[in-house]
Amino acid sequence: MSNHTKLSGKIQTVTGLIDPEELGSTLMHEHLIVDLNPLSQRAKPLPPDDIITLENSFKIRYGQLSSANNFRLDEPDVAIAELKELKAAGGNSLVELTIGGIGPEPETLARISRESGINIVMGCGHYVHGYHFPENKDRSVDSFASEMIAAIREGAWGTNIRAGIIGEIGCEEPWDAAERRVLEGAVLAQMETGASLNVHPGRHPDQPKKVADFVRSTGGIVERLIVSHIERTIFDEERLLRLADTGAILEFDLFGWEQSAYGPADIDMPNDNLRVKWIKVLLDRGYGDQLVISHDIFSKTRLLRYGGHGYQHIYANILPFMRRRGISDEQIRSMMVDTPRRLLTFK
Fold first, then answer.
1. Distance (Å, whole) CA 290 – CA 307
2. What is the helix, strand, coil percentage profile of the chain, to 5?
3. Residue 126 has what DSSP assignment?
4. pTM, whole model, 2 decimals?
5. End-to-end Cα spacing for the chain
6. Is 210 helix (H, G, I), strand (E, B) or coil?
7. What is the DSSP string of 273-319?
8. Which neighbouring-strand residues pair with 17?
């Protein structure tokens, strides 16, 4: 039996294939090991005074202090402890989307999964052009597609540990030519493998729909396209519903980011209450099977260890809040169990 045949109807985690019923409640966009510092800074040791404490955690989180250490999740034992908190709160699985340019470590993810008891589905592909390896500039669409297909069927980043989803594929506005080739390659890989595709959209409010239209026009399956970071990108109902009408999956994945300050762009970042309000709008309009949620933790100050909310936050705080706001258990199950299971099962 070919690996392609084995994948059909299964979910691929970093420790092997599982039946869809084993997935359980799932966070669809997280990072456990990642480095969002510029590539040029990776080889440099951290300054000795770049230490995160409870006294400076808020200042770093708000942008008052700069910290390269904050954007480097590099402590597997901390990740294991944080995921045990997630499991205790009711979580069973998560999608880890650290990909090319931001420091993927498949073997570390496998260890974290085994020792925490949490299923981890790993992504593949490349992030935004500012993090691309220099050789990406001249690579072809087929080259990117072949890499992602191999990551799913054979193993990723020089290991035999296989990806179970494509993405988060980086797109910016204006859209870089190499980013576009990566996404076109990702669509080819989606068509070849039956995997779902997660995209990190540019910060212009029309860019998510541009991405969805591009995926459809190049032969991709929009119903298996997950558009990340909805709440930092779209701020009006008309655009939100227009994107939902494409059939794409809308991912509200910055739960726990309660401050309006947002370093990468001059926006008014919504808090968790407003995230739930927008989700309620979409639920009331009948888009309940197109919604998933997560935290997208990519910095130390968002971990419990460093004074943040951790991966447990949605289960401990947000789901009870959703129920108080009139979101039903059936709707919550759709976002947390049914839709993740559908998306992560290979077709």
1. 32
2. 45, 15, 40
3. B
4. 0.97
5. 16
6. helix
7. HHHHHHHHHHHHTT-GGGEEE-----SGGGSGGGTS--TTHIIIIIH
8. 12
